[in-house]
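Table S2 (text version). Query chain:
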Amino acid sequence: MSTSSTPDSNFDSGSAATPDQAFDSIIAASERAERAQGSASKLFDLRIIIAGLFAFYGIFLLILGVVNTTTEELDKSGGIRVNLYAGIGLLLFAGLFGSWAMARPLIAPDSTDSDQFQTHP
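Corresponding structure-token output:
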């Protein structure tokens, strides 16, 4: 006896709803719950991720520039602590990205048909 498991074979054929109707009702319930919670709080803002990465590398280079700079490295770079200054620059850049994300947060569009997200004016 062969037992093949398809999505339709697991559906109770005695019920009045079809699989498509059950799926549509699940989606509708999910969309209602999302609107109730506020979809603007669930937006994915790439600027925060970028700021975090720049801050991580900036802190790493800042520590490396302060703690682990040899005279050989200073001779190669003309007496400039390159890691220190690069770390400071990356931290400043991360601060700009973070400030931009906080100053102009994303807002969800009013209609569900629009795929465009806008920044706060």
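Notes on Table S2: Helices lie at 19-37, 46-67, 71-76, 82-103. Residues 46-104 form one domain.
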